[in-house]
Design goal:
- 2 copies of one chain form a homodimer.
- Chain A has 17 helices and 17 strands.
- Chain A is an alpha+beta fold.
- Chain A has 2 domains: about 15-45 and about 80-345, BirA Bifunctional Protein, domain 2 (2-Layer Sandwich), CATH 3.30.930; about 355-450, Rossmann fold (3-Layer(aba) Sandwich), CATH 3.40.50.
- Chain A is elongated.
- Strand 3 (about 65-70) of chain A pairs antiparallel with strand 3 (about 65-70) of chain B.
Chain lengths: ~450, ~450
């Protein structure tokens, strides 16, 4: 006997999780498509050099890579993708001439990272990405936030907050402080602000020996940055404040104008202001992005972290082509969102895809159940025929456990007269002796009631 | 620069293929679900011993396996799945106690085989599997063919043929001929009948030295088998004929009765007889299956081979559990079917997911286009806002190329008066100066007409 366990860090997804997951995926596909994003698919396996090219993934991600070897093939040549962004860059570089720009694509698929196994973290998980490539337009920036709003709302998330920032504002601030070359380490320090607090970040910003060239920032520089960041949270009024201090710096002014335009377009799109927030300290991903950045948290569930992040990049595919391809996009973390919604009790639990169970009565021709099932499906009502004429009580138990709503039962007496009984599996009440001619209408009525 | 090509035998799927593919997958999911099959998902990566356990895969499939190695991990421990059946067996063995039986599941996902690259053959392809586990009922057998019929019909395949056989009938014939122990090689010889013709198969059935114990079959045995098989094609009348010769053999009689029951249930389910055929020589997969088997070819496109195959197995999960789990199921080859439908011209070509393009007129506030787009989406009409206010003719070209049907255009004159123009992108005719208040109604009317 072989142990039927899955490999470490991987998992089986049972029907009770897959049913709401498929519903959510269908919602995301429909939402992306309604904005004109088109689907593409790339292989799960990529050539190693595509994935490990300079800047493709962080060092951490590259340490977690899963190598793939064909029987008789050479080692080091193939690997499983760790995100959908590097494959998008490769895809666009290869196909941009046929596709033209702007190119708006969505992609939904598994990615693989050999992280240390931990509760709620898996080595295979699904990302849902959408991007607009080949334009610098703020309309595309705003649409990215609009799509996040539309997708989460359609998926039934009650209240959430999309936080925005623009990398150019912090660039401007650092430049005015004479620290334009220190963006990277400053961003990484700021990223920890919510977790470790002001004092520790102040310390990290001033690390290195005092009065030495190895010192990152002076005490005054560090304090100015933290003051700036801590006052930079809120609505559009934040932009008026920062305009006073940084409005004359060309790069900062670009960032401010971009956020102002985005908020205006989101208002035109009827995205409620309560779902939007500015945070000039939002640092995550800034190292990678070059303009607007997004993070999304669910109200009351901020501890889960961001469930949709993204931003604008200047040059997506520079590893693969000389052609400059700016773009903007975001990714929704399906599995994290589902885990959150399950914990919050927002998912409707069911282990069936159909509302109707057709029982098979012992002694009645199975063709009766099969025929009634086919009729219900033709009328648009999902119906499962129990495959064996076992004791009817056990069949009802099967339906109750899985969440079927009603059962159609045809005993020997009913079969001859073309009648059926309709049982509500929650209340156990039964309507008796309904003519087959009224099957579709009476089942639909019962489902409407239940 | 890194070459943006995919690895050998793999491919990118562009929007023009993905759009009908996603539509087809949604159709399959909806069909499977309407019969009460529930979705599950298993990891793309399995433990090597799960995939290579005795009987899990054929020698050929095992030679084609893709090994997976985590950084710092041991070789030989992990691999990519080559089908969805072995993972189902493992899943059921592990979870059957929570899930109960009958367990009806569908699974859709990529599988990986390192086949020699060739036109139309890829090393990653998608299978769409559905199975009923834990019952020997002929109702489940019939339902398997019913689901194939329903899925292909819903996907828009105009005419096809589901061919059925039952392994037990050939078992009975071989037993009466005193060759019960020679099923395997006989089946493999019969499998080639359509390709190589009667004479070559006769030769193969009599291979080995004459009058020696190494001889597979005598000339008379071989001729009897071929006569039997060649007269065994057609409708239910085939069963009456075979009943005369084999009706007294218990195992053959079981097979005959099973096929008769299945045809009766499919008639009750209103599956037209023209879509069904018996073929007592249908051998493919018989080595693996133990009861009914199915193959499906598209009328006029038989050269593409079977696009949906399956059958009944006695004991799915014997590698992983002592519990006997009989079942029946089938797999639809998504990529093969799509390739066929594309070649046949049955796919509607389009490279957009929305019917409406909203132009951005130079000099008009982008908020106008964004607002009108949001209104159309809220009314259930997919709408794409062009992201930049470039020359309107170029925006119209973008829409025509991709297959948008109409364009909404608001120039500076219209913007102030809250009017828009509606252009049919196929005929280039334009309705002028429609009030914004009539946006949804007029666009829907135009799409209904176009």
């Amino acid at each position: 006997m072989i142990d039927p366990r899955v490999a470490s860090g991987l998992r089986d997804i049972p029907p009770s999780v897959m049913i709401p997951r498929e519903r959510m995926l269908a919602t995301f596909r429909r939402t992306f498509a309604s904005f004109g994003y088109v689907p593409i698919e790339t292989p799960h396996i990529e050539r190693m050099e595509v994935l490990t090219g300079k800047g493709a993934g962080s060092d951490e991600v590259l340490r977690q890579i899963f190598e793939v070897i064909n029987k008789g093939g050479e080692a080091g040549k193939l690997a499983l993708r760790f995100d959908l962004t590097v494959p998008l860059a490769r895809f666009v570089a290869k196909h941009v001439n046929e596709l033209g720009t702007p190119f708006k694509r969505y992609a939904i698929g598994s990615v693989f990272r050999g992280e240390r196994p931990a509760k709620g973290r898996f080595r295979e998980f699904v990302q849902c990405d959408f991007d607009t490539v080949g334009t610098e337009s703020a309309v595309a920036d705003a649409e990215t936030a609009h799509v996040i709003y539309a997708a989460l709302t359609a998926a039934g998330v009650p209240a959430f907050r999309i936080t925005l920032n623009n990398r150019k504002i912090l660039d401007g601030l650092l430049d005015t402080l004479g620290a334009a070359d220190k963006t990277g380490p400053v961003l990484r320090a700021l990223d920890k602000l919510a977790k470790v607090g002001r004092d520790k970040v102040l310390g990290e910003l001033q690390r290195g020996e005092e009065d030495s060239s190895t010192r990152l920032l002076s005490a005054e520089q560090a304090a100015r940055i933290l003051d700036f960041v801590e006052q930079g949270q809120g609505g559009v009024e934040v932009l008026s404040r920062v305009e006073e201090t940084l409005g004359r710096h060309p790069r900062a002014a670009e960032g401010i104008a971009n956020l102002r335009t985005i908020l205006g377009l989101l208002d035109a799109a009827s995205v409620p202001a309560a779902y939007l927030a500015l945070d000039l300290g939002l640092a995550r991903g800034l190292d990678y992005y070059t303009g607007v950045v997004f993070e999304t948290t669910i109200n009351g569930w901020e501890k889960f972290g961001s469930i949709s992040s993204g931003g604008r990049y200047d040059n997506l595919a520079s590893l693969f082509t000389d052609r400059r391809l700016p773009g903007v996009g975001a990714s929704i973390g399906l599995d994290r969102l589902l885990a959150l919604m399950e914990e919050a009790g927002w998912l409707q639990g069911t282990a069936t895809t159909v509302p109707v169970l057709i029982a098979q009565f012992p002694g009645v021709d199975a063709a009766v159940a099969v025929k009634l099932g086919a009729r219900l499906r033709a009328a648009g009502v999902g119906a499962e025929v129990f495959p064996e004429p076992i004791q009817v009580g056990k069949q009802m138990g099967y339906g109750s456990t899985r969440g079927h709503k009603v059962a159609v039962i045809v005993g020997p007496d009913e079969a001859g007269k073309e009648l059926f009984n309709l049982r509500d599996l929650a209340t156990r009440q039964e309507q008796k002796a309904i003519p087959w001619a009224e099957l579709e209408a009476s089942v639909k009525r019962a489902l409407g009631d239940s």
